[in-house]
User: Which sequence fits this backbone?
């Protein structure tokens, strides 16, 4: 696994952040003349965490060419959201599948592939971690309620509440940041199942639910099932991301 790098540049790295797209009619204050429009929506948790770590956050519109985007940015954050279309990993929607957005899936999968190919730092959060696995041919557990022994799915606590521990594997980015264990928040009804090519499990919950993965690719690619941006304090994962994005290519790959 890629070790946590030491930043060498004073220039804030440019960090692209993905997000969902909503129909304007879902926003109650939308003027009636615009109810037919679409709106790109981004939770401010993500850019706040990136900026606090020293990065320059920008939101990514899906109309952009993914390869051209990755060529311009220094790091990528693939954010959380609704379920990935199960057809993207050879399954069918189930009664508990959320609203799907194949257009977002396609854009983010292409961004992940481009980021891995370019070797820029990549952080996948919740849905983003699942997409990282799917991009490499992996699959998901469609409904954790059916198999979990630790509660992952109930949205009953404030988002910053750390509800269960995860165990970090030695020799990984996560272990270098958190040590052997860290308590995390949790509100997801799916998780990673079969691993994709080159995907390594780097943290698990007490019931062995996969909580984090890494892909050895250039400056490093980390995916976590929890939401570090919501924990109410600056999380070291964002410090890692900005440090990795601040290292020249020759150093980052070493």
Assistant:
């Amino acid at each position: 696994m890629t070790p946590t790098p030491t930043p060498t540049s004073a220039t804030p790295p440019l960090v692209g952040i993905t997000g969902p797209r909503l129909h304007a009619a879902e926003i109650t204050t939308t003027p009636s003349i615009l109810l037919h429009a679409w709106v790109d929506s981004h939770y401010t948790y993500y850019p706040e965490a990136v900026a606090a770590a020293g990065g320059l956050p920008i939101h990514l519109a899906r109309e952009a060419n993914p390869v051209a985007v990755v060529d311009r940015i220094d790091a990528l954050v693939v954010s959380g959201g609704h379920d990935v279309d199960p057809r993207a990993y050879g399954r069918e929607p189930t009664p508990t599948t959320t609203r799907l957005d194949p257009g977002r899936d396609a854009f983010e999968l292409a961004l992940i592939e481009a980021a891995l190919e370019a070797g820029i730092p990549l952080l996948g959060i919740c849905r983003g971690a699942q997409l990282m696995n799917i991009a490499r041919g992996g699959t998901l557990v469609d409904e954790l309620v059916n198999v979990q022994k630790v509660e992952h799915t109930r949205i009953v606590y404030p988002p910053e509440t750390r509800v269960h521990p995860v165990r970090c594997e030695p020799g990984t980015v996560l272990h270098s940041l958190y040590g052997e264990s860290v308590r995390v928040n949790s509100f997801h009804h799916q998780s990673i199942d079969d691993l994709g090519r080159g995907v390594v499990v780097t943290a698990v919950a007490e019931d062995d639910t996969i909580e984090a993965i890494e892909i050895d690719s250039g400056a490093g690619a980390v995916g976590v099932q929890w939401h570090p941006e919501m924990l109410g304090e600056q999380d070291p994962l964002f410090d890692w991301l900005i440090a990795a994005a601040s290292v020249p290519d020759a150093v980052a790959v070493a």
Notes: Confidence is low (pLDDT under 50) at residues 250-254. The CA atoms of residues 17 and 72 lie 13 Å apart. The longest helix spans residues 102-118. The first strand starts at residue 14 and ends at 17.
